[in-house]
Amino acid sequence: MNRKLYMEFLDISVNTFYLWKKQKRPIINFLSKYFDDSEIEEFLTTGKLEKLELIKNIQCEDLKNAATFKNLTISI
Fold it and tell me: What is the pLDDT of residues 26-52, one digit of tens each?
């Protein structure tokens, strides 16, 4: 977790970052669980995430069907 990226992404100060982290604010947990530093940096640079752009028009049911077709299971 690169705190500078998080601070820039959330537009917060270093003090706020550490306070939110200590308080276990959901946004900090969400970002650290589902995004790595390179993805946050990509979003800050381009305003989007390529991997999400690729699937933004696909319905959840379509993803489930595709995963099932390949013998995978996805829980949504």
Answer: 999 999 999 999 999 999 999 999 988
Is the model's pTM score more than 0.90? no
CB 40 within 8 A of CB 5: yes
Q: What tokens does 14 get?
A: 């270093």
Compute the distance between CA of residue 52 and CA of residue 7 in angstroms, rounded to an integer. Answer: 22
pLDDT at 62: 78
Q: How many residues does the chain have?
A: 76
Residue 50 tokens read as 């390529």
Non-local CB neighbours of 20 within 8 Å, separated by 6+ positions: 12, 27, 28
35 contacts 1 by C-beta, under 8 angstroms: no
Which ranges of 1-76 does DSSP label H, i.e. alpha helix? 3-10, 14-22, 26-34, 37-46, 50-55, 60-69
